[in-house]
Amino acid sequence: MKTKEEPQNEQNTRRDFIKKSAIGLAAFTIVPRYVLGGQGYLAPSDKLTKAVIGVGGMGRGHFDYEGTQVVAICDVDQNHLKQAASMLDKGVKTFSDYRELIQLPEVDIVHIATPPHWHGIMAVDAANAGKDIWCEKPMTHTIGEGKRVVEAVKQHGRMFRLNTWFRFKDTFYGMGTTVKPIKKLVDSGMLGWPLKVTVSKHTGYDWKFYWVGKDHLEPQPVPPELNYNAWLGPAPYKPYNAHRVHQTFRGYWDYDGGGLSDMGQHYIDPIQYFLGKDDTNPISVEVDAPQQHTDAVGIWRRITYTYADGCQIILDGEGKDTNVPYIEGPKGKLYPGFKSDIPDLERKLAQFPDPDPEIVEFSESVRTRKKFALNEENGHRSCNIVNIGLAALRLGRSLKFDPVKQEFVDDEAANRLINPVMRAPFSI
To answer: How far apart are CA 366 and CA 218, in angstroms?
Structure first.
């Protein structure tokens, strides 16, 4: 899919990349070492082995995860690759093509730390290659990609971890507590039902509206260290500009979705959990936002999701409601700092059971073959909420959603965003 504006060196790079793709399609499936050695098998170092794809920032930050050892890394930017390699043992293997990395028989876990437009393809390829998967948020760039990841992980019996952790550990932003007592409070029924959850700067959440794109980018020369065609991958070809890649890619629809895509799963996934909706999604979304540019992500004022039972999630981008509770129900309210209008809340709450325990260390999940707390299924559902909102923003209108079919209702334009056409030769 060449364009007249595309420079000759980009055409040559693309032909090389497509040629490699054909080779990659013929790759055989590799079985991880723990399968060959039986359940509980460990590497000689007594650690699970890990390969990291994308080492420009987030990937480097997860080299030292407890119980794992990095044995391979991959990046399409040679400067990133060199910097990351300098932080690791000399024996670590380096790659510019992730398809070579996932074929390594010594790799147990593939950690995907690329921009989101690559997450789905890489996760499916890793599952097909017999690897367990650790993926950064958002889980996938589209709803359709998420469905394929769920299918591939199930088909090949893989373990999957989505890297947002607030449903099971760490203080949950402005709430002054982990999510566990919030889940316990919701399950107790003391707040009543249905519930409304408001996510805004007044309840402790920053929507990072600095992640916006520029609506006019002048073409620039591609830096010699960057394989820009490989960085684009399945995304449409557009002339290189430094603002499209690396730290500022979040401002462009082709690769991400601004602050909502960056922080959405961090904020929304725990809500899905404590509302008990890990197997479903809202049935509608309403948006209040300026008209979005076709390429560059803009800001928004308010996004309202509604579930079939009347529960709502309000994303307040402009901070309109200054004294709003984080959770509001017909019987009570919960404010930041775990404050409530329910008298003697903590004593009353102590009478109720704690939430069910979960596996919260991925190394345990890999060894026992039991699902991680935030896995491909519930992670896909919370990612859907992000992508439902992004679709409404891009189209500039409210949408109806069918949580069973995972499709928009009577809206052809919205449904085209579920499985957008990928640039050849990529598919999922």
So the answer is: 46
User: 302: closest CA among 311, 312, 52?
Assistant: 312
Cα dihedral 401, 407, 411, 414 sign: positive
Q: Which of 312, 282, 308, 309 is nearest to 392 (CA)?
A: 282
Counting Cα atoms < 13 Å in the Cβ hemisphere of 362 gives: 28
Amino acid (1-letter code) at residue 175: M
Beta strands in 224-301 (DSSP E): 284-288
Instruction: Label residue 19 exposed, middle or buried (CB < 10 Å: 0-12, 13-18, 19+).
Output: exposed
Residues 234-247: tens digit of each pLDDT: 999 999 999 999 99
User: pTM value?
Assistant: 0.89
**pLDDT digits over 141-196, tens only?**
999 999 999 999 999 999 999 999 999 999 999 999 999 999 999 999 999 999 99
Report which residue type is found at 31: V
DSSP codes joined into one string, 46-64: SSEEEEEE--SSTTGGGTT
Identify the structural domains of the chain with CATH numbers, from first to last.
44-162 (3.40.50.720), 179-418 (3.30.360)
Among 97, 99, 75, which residue's Cα sits nearest to residue 87? 75
In angstroms, the CA 197 to CA 200 distance is 10
